[in-house]
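Cross-posted from the bioinformatics board.
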Amino acid sequence: MWAYLVRRILYAIPILIGVNLLTFLLFFVVNTPDDIARMQLGVKRVTPEAIDNWKRERGYHLPRFFNDDESGTRQLTETIFFQKSARMFAFDFGASDDGRDIAREIGQRMGPSLAIAVPTFVLGLLVAICFSLLLVFFRASRLDVAGVVLCVAMMSISSLFYIIFGQWLVAKVWQLVPISGYVGGIDSWPFLVLPVLIGVFAGLGASARWYRTLFLEEIGRDYVRTARAKGVSERVVLFRHVLKNAMIPILTGVVVVIPLLFMGSLLIESFFGIPGLGSYTIEAIQAQDFAVVRAMVFIGSLLYIVGLVLTDISYTVVDPRVRLE
Amino acid sequence: MHPDSPLWLLLSCLLAAFAAGCGEVWNDPYPGERADAPVLYSAFVNRPKHLDPVQSYSENEATFTYQIYEPPLQFHYLKRPYELEPGAAAEMPRLRLLDASGQTLPPDAPADSIAASEYTIRIREGMRYQPHPAFVDDLEMPDDPRTIADFAHSSSREVTAEDFVYQIKRLAHPRLHSPILELIAGYLPGLRDLHRRLREVPVPAGGWLDLREHSLDGVEVVDRYTYRVRLTGTYPQFLYWLAMPFFAPVPWEAERFYAREGMAERNFTLDWWPVGSGPYMLVDNDPNSRMTLAANPNYRQDSYPCEGEAGDREAGLLDDCGRRLPLIERVVFARERESIPYWNKFLQGYYDASGISSDNFDQAVQTVGDGDVRITDEMQAKGIELVTSVAPTVMYMGFNMLDPVVGGDGDSARKLRLAISIAIDQEEFISIFRNGRGVAAMHPLPPGLFGYRSGEAGINPYVYDWTDGRAVRKPAAEARRLLAEAGYPEGRDAATGAPLVIYLDTTGTGLGGKAEVDWLTKQFRKIDVQLVVRATDYNRFQDKIRSGNAQIFYWGWNADYPDPENFFFLLHGAQGKVTSQGENAANYRNAEYDRLFERMKAMPDGPERQRIIDRMIAILQHDAPWNWGFYEVVYSLQHAWIQNRKPGKIARNTLKYQNIDGALRARRRAEWNRPVTWPLALGGALMAALVIPAWRQYRRRERATALASEAR
């Protein structure tokens, strides 16, 4: 397994370089270094000299990929791409274009993001599995049909609707929780209840339907019939046998998103005023802050790779037949 | 469920914790804070980029910097038209005009005889900076500090004239990129040279450049409480700049403090943690969530004004006459990115004042009679008040004067511009897209500034007629006549027969932008002119404006200070966008106008200045380099418990004057936010109604025999 992991880590390096290159290309197709400077310096009374100075200070005066004025390896290293990308592989994200330390900013924003994302993820998973097992238990009954219809209806509604409707009903009409805001520590729970519930509810339809399909496929297998024939109760059949054997496809979808929980949720955080990472990238794109954009894309792709590796490892845990070689 | 079961115990604990965590009101977004405390609650949408007074230039930054830093002058809070008065200065600056030989000139000397203007500024004695660790000698760095409050010790010192001079030198700091460096360097001898010299000084990133070691020709410290600024020529608007944080005192200790190792990595910079002598200090700075200002305990003796304009006494704006400022202890700014929660929290009493977005306009305001507006009954029932004011802002459609079709000073192009100006029904635009929040502009100068004329004398005679005591837009037939005279009868080129196509460059690509563009296309169709919209992103749009490749475009200007110069310079030839990257986006140039502008800007307000302004306006209305657009009208709502709020966008250090009736707010919040608990019970009952039958069904199935199942 270790050889496999080392190989996967080595594969990750060209992937990360590729993602970096692509981000760089896309960003600089839309924004020139002059645009970035103007965005940071403001729109009133900005002089060409101030723009030049700003670019020089931050290394945006260099050529993008190839420096004709230099010789040897410096032709490649004295470029915006190299200067801005190389340090990231040592996890040195530097400062944003407005001068704030990116690593520190991420550290500060990660907590609120996780405070929403972890309970939403765990509760969502739990509710979706229980609900789908319930539907499977009552399969082919009116309850099952009603449940499937409900799932389809819930899938069809935009998550924005859940947010706005939830805020209107629970926070405005019933006034049970604050409509938005966040404080750290133990006092944060009134601010988390509604976004977590909405997060769970918004994702329930799609997940429950997917899990129901997986469980139905399993429940018709021979080992289930054998278990029943041995007199095993339906609860044990569902939770111990069916759930365990349906784990591979569940893990495929679930484990890969665990690392990405750090990245937060854009819509929920924006509407509920949660100071998390969800909006960090979007705000950086709007502010044309390349330093933040590249750092967040880098972290996002790294976490995704970690998620995929974790998924592979998790297969070996739930299915002894799987070997990572 | 058995009362002794673990699940039951867990549920009981959760319910107990829930009940303990909730007071009378469950939706309070400020847990642990008393609603009756003298605290103002406000919101911000975009995080401020700069809080360093030498860099900060945006409206959303001014909300903070003007409360934290105190420049030498300020605008009188209540008087209108705006009037400058001493702030940190002990008195208004003394001005001495000098000729080329250094002889003193009389105050009314002609501008061209003035070689230099010398301002002597005496500051108040005994002013002190906010408590801050920067003033502590031998400071120990705490373990991983997150806010300035994490430093165990703080101290202060007296503000001296040296600090004001230090800040003026900071304008030339090569790493700070002050937006007004070039402007001030045009008047202040030695500033540009200092900038050049400082660029040669090797300073590591984040290191301290001690400006005390570098001299600046135009500025000198006279004594501990007096300094002198010598400007080239005459620049009366300099007094307005002295009312901005660009010229507020900054202690050198602050720069030294933030240059220490490990500070920048922890985001401790002067740009983020200001150190000022104003009425408030920043005590909490999480721009993703919340920023808090607290009253500066070292703020100088300052009192609420006892005189204002007519009507202020009746409005209760003089009730706090003579009271020590600031009146509010803390100001909490919470970040709200979305308008829906912002608006609802205002209605719940958790924000003390709010603007009105177009989404909420109908809920807040209704139009009555002849375009008048009043607050809706729903708002009135809550005691909410509507405050309106015309902002010193002009939004306009510019014609690129370098364009071969709409530009140039030829009569044909001029008539084409006038025809377009008549055809675009600005009043309709304001009504449809601004909910009536605007006043059609006649020229670049907004109401409330010296030189503005209202009534018949103030209308643009090329676009409006004065009928029945009001300005009436000329009919489309007049626009078509002008178009024909311009060489485009019925919208076609008289020479070639080709249809006239006008190109609008815009960044408005969203839903709102589409509706505006459709409306504008309809306006052009009234005179048979085709409008082609070139939607683009903001960067490319700016490129086009800078290179003069746009034909017509929307643009706007928000005043720096209440002087006509700050609007007329937008059409000054020397400010041409293409030629000098200035603020004249239309690239307009008229020799007579430019000459008059140079005279006008150096003059004090008076009949002669008014005469020149009238002439400048006449030239602009004749040449029509802009379709004059509209002046923005600002509507804002405030709860009954907020006091002393006077509308106006020029004076920005307004928080120290505002007051709160905390007891009323606490009562209202409790009244408006009683939790509705029956849905919880209903939810529980519904859950039980679902779970119990399912559980029974499950049990029945579990107990059923195979035979019985078969039989069913």
